[in-house]
Amino acid sequence: MVRINGEELDVAGKTIAEYLVGTSYDLKRIAVERCGEIVPKSAYSSTTLADGDSVEIVSFVGGG
User: Fold this and answer.
1) How far is CA 2 from the centre of its chain?
2) Per-residue tens of pLDDT for the chain, all 64 residues
3) What one-character-per-residue DSSP string does 1-64 give?
4) What are the extents of the domains in the chain?
5) Which burial class, exposed, middle or buried, applies to 16 when counting CB atoms under 10 A from its CB (0-12, 13-18, 19+)?
6) Could you tell me which of 50, 52, 57 has the C-alpha nearest to residue 12?
7) If you compute the radius of gyration of the chain from its CA atoms, what whole number of angstroms results?
8) Which pTM value belongs to this model?
């Protein structure tokens, strides 16, 4: 199980890119942190989620 934004999900073994495909996140406007470290967008397809990982996904919102 992987904790993503506080929710336990059965996505261990998937890459970050594979997980994100099934979500409604705008990939151009998010940042992903895995186990306390920011994951570069270029590494989404090569970073595999593992049991016990903690992931935070944040969306950037424009405004002013």
Assistant:
1) 10
2) 999 999 999 999 999 999 999 899 999 999 999 999 999 999 999 999 999 999 999 998 777 6
3) -EEETTEEE--TTSBHHHHHHTS---GGGEEEEETTEEEPGGGTTT-B--TT-EEEEEE-----
4) 2-59
5) buried
6) 50
7) 11
8) 0.90
CA distance 3 to 56: 8
pLDDT of amino acid 63: 72
Supply 27's token pair: 């990939």
2-59 placed in CATH 3.10.20.30: yes
Residue whose pair of structure tokens reads 């595999």 in the numeric block = 48
